[in-house]
């Protein structure tokens, strides 16, 4: 199924999603398809890799795991069968601590932490639709990384299951990860270009 066929105003499910061409990358939010092309920029990939490395190093020998896009996260509203789920996203990074949520298709249910790296093409979706989606689904911690500004905006679920901003962090800051007692992510290592270090 191509791009034009998905723009007809119809609502789709995971059952449709798995039959779409592997040459195309899509997300479904409440049944609405979002085209994820073109591919991420070099800087986007660099930031994703550096964040993933810090998390991965910390998580060695622990039950939580870090996953990076493309990695399907199915977010059911209740107890729908897989093929009935109408929301499937591919976060840039996802930390999953409940192994029961993992299968060969990806993750079914809310990850514990999600990071989205913001580009002009995805800003509205990541800051509005996904913000509300992750809040509703129970993602405990949501980070929005802005490559151009070199900042990370961090939100944590409060006792009312609503996102509360825990901080806006600059490129020289360290972020205390709320879901772990003893992990800080060093943004100086994330936003510094390897070429800048060599120079």
From TrEMBL:
<feature type="domain" description="Putative restriction endonuclease">
    <location>
        <begin position="17"/>
        <end position="187"/>
    </location>
</feature>
<dbReference type="Pfam" id="PF05685">
    <property type="entry name" value="Uma2"/>
</dbReference>
<dbReference type="GO" id="GO:0004519">
    <property type="term" value="F:endonuclease activity"/>
</dbReference>
<keyword id="KW-0255">Endonuclease</keyword>
<dbReference type="InterPro" id="IPR008538">
    <property type="entry name" value="Uma2"/>
</dbReference>
<dbReference type="InterPro" id="IPR011335">
    <property type="entry name" value="Restrct_endonuc-II-like"/>
</dbReference>
<dbReference type="InterPro" id="IPR012296">
    <property type="entry name" value="Nuclease_put_TT1808"/>
</dbReference>
<keyword id="KW-0378">Hydrolase</keyword>
<protein>
    <submittedName>
        <fullName>Uma2 family endonuclease</fullName>
    </submittedName>
</protein>
<keyword id="KW-0540">Nuclease</keyword>
């Amino acid at each position: 199924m191509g791009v034009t066929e998905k723009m007809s105003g119809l609502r789709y499910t995971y059952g449709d999603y798995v039959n779409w061409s592997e040459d195309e990358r899509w997300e479904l939010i409440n049944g609405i398809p979002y085209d994820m092309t073109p591919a991420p920029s070099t800087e986007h990939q660099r930031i994703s890799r550096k964040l993933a490395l810090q998390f991965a190093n910390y998580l060695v020998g622990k039950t939580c795991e870090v996953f990076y896009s493309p990695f399907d996260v199915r977010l059911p509203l209740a107890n729908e069968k897989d093929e009935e789920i109408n929301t499937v996203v591919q976060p840039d990074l996802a930390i999953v601590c409940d192994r029961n949520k993992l299968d060969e298709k990806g993750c079914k249910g809310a990850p514990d932490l999600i990071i989205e790296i913001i580009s002009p093409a995805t800003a509205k979706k990541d800051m509005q639709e996904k913000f509300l989606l992750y809040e509703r689904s129970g993602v405990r911690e949501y980070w929005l990384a802005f490559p151009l500004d070199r900042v990370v905006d961090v939100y944590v679920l409060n006792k009312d299951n609503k996102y509360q901003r825990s901080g806006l962090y600059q490129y020289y800051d360290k972020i205390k990860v709320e879901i772990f007692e003893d992990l800080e992510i060093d943004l100086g290592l994330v936003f510094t270009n390897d070429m800048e270090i060599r120079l």
